[in-house]
Amino acid sequence: MSMAVHPNIPTVTSDLEPMRGEKLVRPFTRFAQLSSSGGLVLLACTLAAMIWANSSEWESYTHIFHEMEVHLGVGEFMLQHQGHMSLGLFINDALMAVFFLLVGLEIKREIIVGELSDVKKAALPIVAAFGGMVAPALIFVSLNMGHDSIRGWGVPMATDIAFALGILALLGSRVPNSLKVFLTSLAIADDLGALLVIAFFYTEHLNVEALGYAAVIVGVLVLLNRFGFKSAAWFLVPGLFLWYFVFISGVHATIAGVLLAATIPVNPRVEVSRYSRYTRAALDVFDESDDPTQDIRTNATQRAAVMQINENGRLVLPLLHRLEHALEGPVSFLIIPIFALANAGLHITGGIGEALFNRVSLGVILGLVIGKPLGITLACWIAVKLNIGVLGKGVTWRQIIGVSCLGGIGFTMALFIATLGFKTHPDYLDHAKLGILTASAISAPAGLGILLTCPPASEEQADDPDEPRDG
Questions:
Q1: Contact 1/322 with Cβ under 8 angstroms?
Q2: Model-level pTM greater than 0.85?
Q3: Does residue 453 register a pLDDT over 70?
């Protein structure tokens, strides 16, 4: 979480008796604050999709997500996708662009001010992500060489950050904080690699004119950033047009989210010291305007002071952080679960053995279950031996192996790449989905089991930030 609530910072309602409405939503609020909550919601929607797709109502699942058309337009202008747009395509092309915007914001934050900004700290997760992408791809290619199913080589390359971090969160303070930082950085670097794969290898027919318009909009967004515009509207409105031109260009529309994220300002409008000085001055005005005969509804000066304090908060927080914070909830609890519901529903016909033991399913399963941990662990070992990177404080090689197994939880990004690679081969797509679900079901308990066998982290290692050490 980029802007999680700090437990030591009091709020104005900390010591107040909660209202009835607050009592009703308190269980949901507490659940949403859990580190594993997003992964649990995602898992629930995945199970719901599988049950629905294999129930007596499976035809309704197919109709709603893959046959029912969605019409977007203004007046006579209608947005089309090769003749029509199903609800599933709308989810994958439009809603998922918001998810990729959030991913892009996280990547930019990590590169500029986060763990990936320090070359020594960034080296290990970047090398690990590279190894964790190459090994699964090679395994898939070796099983599908000479067949048209080889288009799915990118499917087992991806790690699902929500699931992986959710599983790690279940261990709480048993694992050192540096291991959590490593997995987060690894997953973000992995996402960046997956985005490059989507952009360069899963783009078919290009509309050069549309790409030109998209490039012009990106240029305008860069200028807005350079000229000091800090309001979200200046970027999100052009971002809608950017999405449209990328959508009709042949490049997958979700890449627009990443391009937009790259142009979002990361610097605040005012410095912290200035914010503190002027906010305290506004608080002084608020206190001096206190009138026992009035309350906030009738005291215009106090209302103005509060509004200025809110504006000061907006100016001291970079737009990147504000957008990231605003998108985390909707993406985790709405967009990704809807994506899972629309794409994880696999209608299994015939024998399960036939569906599992074919080149596509085996390529995905072996790629994620064996290729991911092998590639990540081997890449880490080589990086440490060559002094390219260092293990974090308190991190053991057994923990690296456990985390690398969690990297085999492909899910969201893997499903997304599968829908791109096999959009004209529904049988291959079903086999890839089954492989992703099976591999994730194996990788999660395998990684968790290995990490549970590791000695608990000391209190200092569990709480302190990552400090590197030699392997």
A1: no
A2: no
A3: yes
